Amino acid sequence: MANETPDPKDPLGAIDTPTPRRKPKPEVTTIGGRELKPSTLMMGHGYDAALSEGSLKPPIFLTSTFAFENAAAGKRHFEGITGKRPGGAEGLVYSRFNGPNQEILEDRLAIWDGAEDALCFSSGMTAIAILILAACNTGDVIVHSGPLYAASEGFVAKVMAKYGVRYVDFPAGASPEKLDEVMAKAKAMAEETGGTVPLIYLESPGNPTNALVDIEAVRDARDKHFSADTTPIAIDNTFLGPLWQRPLDHGADLVVYSLTKYVGGHSDLVAGSVSGGKKWIDAIRALRNTMGGIADPNTAWMLLRSLETVELRMQRAGENAAKVCAFLKAHPKVEGLGYLGMIEDARQQDIYDRHCLGAGSTFSLFIKGGEAECFRFLDALKVAKLAVSLGGTETLASHPASMTHLSVPEGRRAELGIADNLVRISIGIEDPDDLIADFEQALEAV
Ligand SMILES: *Cc1c(COP(=O)(O)O)cnc(C)c1O
Fold it and tell me: What's the 91 CA to ligand 1 centre distance in angstroms?
């Protein structure tokens, strides 16, 4: 928290926080009035080759600290860092705050979501934890959708509880009436303990069921009970972003990613990010400056390479998933699919039509039977790999009830629809007919 005594009207803290920046550079984002698309901007945006000996690609800046031009410049930077002078530091200072690779990455990440600014972190969970810690004070109440990624749910329910922060949750897909009720309840709870509702935290689609949250309805309920200036809506967009869902267009204020998944996309790094309005981002940056948790330069560089192909990879994975799901749906050993391209619920379909630009490539496969049948299927796969995680170039399959969600109590698992016969599949960019052949022979083993 930036302030000693946080202003309840500005729950994420003071906004006159450090914003270390490289020297300003000219940016080409339009040509003759035409706005360049993200896929074009990924090749150069935020990088000036003249600052790096003309190197076409950004070098990896392995340094812990940055030399000041002179003592007066050093003083000015620190005046910016400490908030003595508004506007932040005018150059790079120290690598816990930022570095060239991370700043280029942040500039490019912001483009995908149409955000003012972005921050990168050493993991998705670091991003989520720092976002939540920056927002909350003792006595506050977080409103969140369910299910959340298991570690996010644990962070809110167990870690934040230690600091006197409570939560109210609602099921993804909740109706406007239910959302209205939940906000009113959270407001009353916060008033009892002298706190506020400083954050509404969503995850959509939920993991592993693919249940969608109606972001627009959440925004309307927020606006009725709270103010957009005090109660931001943050959403974990890991499953569909950045290509298939743009939450800032639908009323969210902050977008969170595990960059480990689709954005990194090669199952070879761990990182996270938060994008959104400058007001919120600056406050989260202040806590990151204090705690650390920024992505390292090498990981940031790898992500710059990943971003050049993110659209290509996600498009191909999405096309592959549609073909694989068409095959699986018709198979006699398959009970059903939790795939956003084949929604059966009218309310979920309505949310999908308003919010989503594609069905993604991660889905649930319900095999007729239970754990034993799923294990036989998983053990027979030859192309798809048996591993948790998602969004990589390779197809992965896992069994949530006995793996990622084993720690979730059985009753809660049932409530969330995490059945014993559910296999989660993340489709990669292999040849789709090879994938279908693999699933066909694995289903024969069931
Ligand atoms: C993986 C994941 C996270 C956590 O990200 P890490 O990079 O593993 O810390 C958070 N949310 C969702 C939806 C995820 O899939």
Answer: 32
Is residue 427 within 8 Å of 395, Cβ to Cβ?
Answer: yes
Whole-number Cα distances in Å, 334 to 369, 374, 437: 9, 11, 15
What does the pLDDT read at residue 89?
Answer: 67
Which domains, ranges and CATH numbers included, belong to the chain?
A: 118-305 (3.40.640.10), 310-444 (3.90.1150.10)
Please tell me the distance between residue 98's alpha carbon and the centre of ligand 1 in angstroms.
22
β-strand 385-386 against 233-236: which pairing, if any?
A: unpaired
Query: Considering only CA atoms, which of 138, 140, 230 is closest in space to residue 190?
Result: 140
Nearest ligand 1 atom, CA 203: 13
- State if residue 272 touches ligand 1 by the CB under 6 angstroms criterion: yes
Atom 15, ligand 1: residue with shortest CA distance: 238
Instruction: Answer whether 259's CB lies under 8 Å from 273's CB.
Output: yes
The whole-angstrom separation of Cα 11 and Cα 231 is 8
125 close to ligand 1 (CB < 6 Angstrom): yes
Encode pLDDT of 403-437 as tens digits: 988 888 888 888 888 899 999 999 999 999 999 99
- CA-nearest of 344, 337, 343 to 368 is 337
